[in-house]
Amino acid sequence: MEYLRDAEEFAKAARTMESPAVVIQNAFKAAEFALKAYASKLNRRIDSHADAKRIAYTISDEVGRGFTELLDLYSGSYRREDGERTSRAIELMGRIIDEVESRLTE
Question: Is the CB of residue 80 less than 8 Å from the CB of residue 15?
Fold first, then answer.
């Protein structure tokens, strides 16, 4: 599935970049592409961050809250509010991708 492959590429980039803003932005995009893969399974589309958030909450409240937090980190990255937030972004990205992958194999 192309969306999942894109998610994996963004995740790989997130884990190898040095700039905190780029790490967070790639982590967010990885999670969003993973959610697009899940939305496709449901015959739904993601055209906005709000759509992605709704799909995340259809998986579970935990995934929805995680995606919402990651979205906040993503928005903050443009204001250069990075610091320790990069490790949290990587953690959230990993949890969301793992959950989506497990749902796609059901």
Answer: no
Burial 65-74 (b: 16+ CB within 10 A, else e): ebbeebbebb
Contact 72, 78 (CB under 8 A): no
H or E element in which residue 10 lies: helix 2-16
In this prediction, residue 77 has a pLDDT band, given cuts at 50, 70 and 90, of: confident
Cβ 96 vs Cβ 66: under 8 Å: yes
pTM: 0.86
Reported as a pLDDT band with limits 50, 70 and 90, residue 81 is low
Report in angstroms the alpha-carbon separations of 90 from 24, 45, 46, 74, 106.
Answer: 7, 25, 22, 11, 25
Length of the chain: 106
Torsion on CA atoms 71, 46, 104, 97, rounded to nearest 10 = -20
